[in-house]
Design brief:
By secondary structure, the protein is an alpha/beta fold. The chain is 45% helix and 11% strand. The protein contains 16 helices and 14 strands. Bound molecules: D-xylulose and cobalt (II) ion (CO). Residues 187, 231, 267, 295, 338 line the site of cobalt (II) ion.
Length: 439
């Protein structure tokens, strides 16, 4: 097979001393840690949309990316992108990719024609998978680009729009199953509102819940065994999105009887847009048993929108992996680079530098997290900090078997002026040292 990117080599592990930016310092894919290969722990994935479809446009400027399919018609370009996803992931040693239906094939003038073209591209992907180790991490439906979704998809006031969204999700679930996708994602970029002056919020949330129930039923009907995931984001493109953050999604799932069917896909830049750290979101999901997938990227603290940059902060990645490891891994989920190169980074090789940076930073973070857990660096302080709640009265509080009266008696017998120091600065020092210690 002719290579599309002959100048891009296979990226290999060269160890911590290498200065080669087209090699890994930490990602030794086959190396086993406690019996599991690094590749299986990390479960990295490439995002079809950012790496193959994005043109480098922004609200002020046109396309900048140089890609071999630029001059082709849309269908020939879609076919070439199939070769590209396998070539790039294989060269990087990335085992998965994720896609929206419309990333694979452009929409045509009718549902029947759109689905027929999608089937053609899907057949091509299936054929390539026969000779490639690369697999689908998750699929999703793009329910935000077409003008019919301008007022939302499942939360649209138009039943016709709602039905189109339903038809699209039905097909996207079928396609994800056909490609043995391990998860299916719902990101509702337009499931929210621009102004309450024209919005019935109660009804829209009920529509959304009904939509999810139908998707669960259809996934079961066709025998899709992948994990269903909801991806929160507080805003952008809509002013307010119903799946605001992990806490809102947990509440929504609970309210509408959807908890058993969904986990959460957490994206770093969405967490920060919601005013949280990524660590907060991942920790909250883990402690509620709904950590499903990570959309790995980073934002820019000086900008108020979703910049989708590659993750390059060792500390942030270490803290995410600290939770992932305590979760026993991500099971069916993975670490999907929902990230794009800047529009001035127009060369194909810039995509490779970006992924090497993300892969190595996250793998380094995992190794640091492993050490933090093994040495109980933070854990032993947390255990000590809550020790009073391990006493019999403390346990009664958690079991809800004590009373204000009993606690009053205890308070009289046990006066307290100052509890233990929180020791935040010492813990920050220990974390900083761990980040800069050999792994
Ligand atoms: C948008 C975003 C999406 C979802 C899939 O901010 O993250 O790419 O991951 O629709
Ligand atoms: Co995402």
């Amino acid at each position: 097979m002719k290579e599309l990117f002959p100048d891009i080599p296979h990226i290999t592990f060269e160890g911590q001393k290498t200065d080669n930016p087209l090699a890994f310092r930490y990602y030794d894919a086959k190396k086993k840690i406690d019996g599991t290969s690094i590749s299986d722990i990390m479960r990295f994935s490439m995002a079809y949309w950012h790496s193959l479809c994005a043109l480098g446009t922004d609200p002020f400027g046109g396309p900048t990316m140089e890609r071999p399919w630029n001059t082709l018609d849309p269908i020939a370009a879609a076919e070439m992108r199939v070769s590209a996803i396998f070539e790039l992931t294989e060269k990087l040693g990335i085992p998965f990719f994720c896609f929206h239906d419309r990333d694979l094939a452009p929409e045509q003038e009718s549902i029947a024609k759109t689905n027929a073209l999608l089937d053609k591209i899907v057949a091509r992907i299936k054929e390539r998978m026969e000779s490639s180790p690369v697999r689908v991490l998750w699929g999703t439906a793009n329910l935000f680009t077409h003008p019919r979704y301008m007022n939302g998809a499942a939360s649209s006031p138009s039943l016709r729009t709602f039905a189109h969204a339903a038809a699209q999700v039905k097909k996207a679930l079928e396609v994800t199953k056909e490609l043995s996708g391990q998860n299916y994602v719902f990101w509702g970029g337009r499931e929210g509102y621009e102004t309450l002056l024209n919005t019935d919020m109660k009804r829209e949330r009920e529509q959304l819940a009904s939509f999810f129930h139908m998707a669960v039923a259809y996934a079961q009907e066709i025998g899709f065994t992948g994990q269903l995931l909801i991806e929160p984001k507080p805003k952008e493109p809509t002013k307010h999105q119903y799946d605001f953050d992990v806490a809102s999604v947990i509440g929504f799932l609970e309210q509408y009887g959807l908890t058993p069917f969904f986990k959460i896909n957490i994206e770093t830049n969405h967490a920060t847009l919601a005013g949280h750290t990524m660590h907060h979101e991942v920790a909250l999901a883990r402690s509620n048993g709904v950590l499903g997938n990570i959309d790995a990227n980073s934002g820019d603290t000086l900008l108020g929108w979703d910049t989708d940059q590659f993750p390059v902060s060792t500390k942030d990645c270490a803290l995410v992996m600290y939770e992932v490891l305590q979760n026993g891994g991500l099971q069916k989920g993975g670490l999907n680079f929902d990230a794009k190169v800047r529009r001035a980074s127009w060369r194909p090789v810039d995509l490779i530098y970006a992924h090497v940076a993300g892969i190595d930073t996250y793998t380094h973070g995992m190794l640091i997290a492993k050490k933090l857990l093994k040495e109980q660096t933070l854990k032993k302080h947390i255990t000590k900090r809550y020790a009073e709640f391990d006493t019999s009265l403390g346990k009664k509080v958690l079991e809800r078997t004590t009373t204000l009266k009993e606690l009053e008696t205890f308070a009289i017998e046990n006066p307290i002026h100052r509890p233990e120091s929180g020791a935040q600065e010492m813990l920050e020092l220990l974390l900083e040292r761990a980040i800069h210690s050999p792994v």
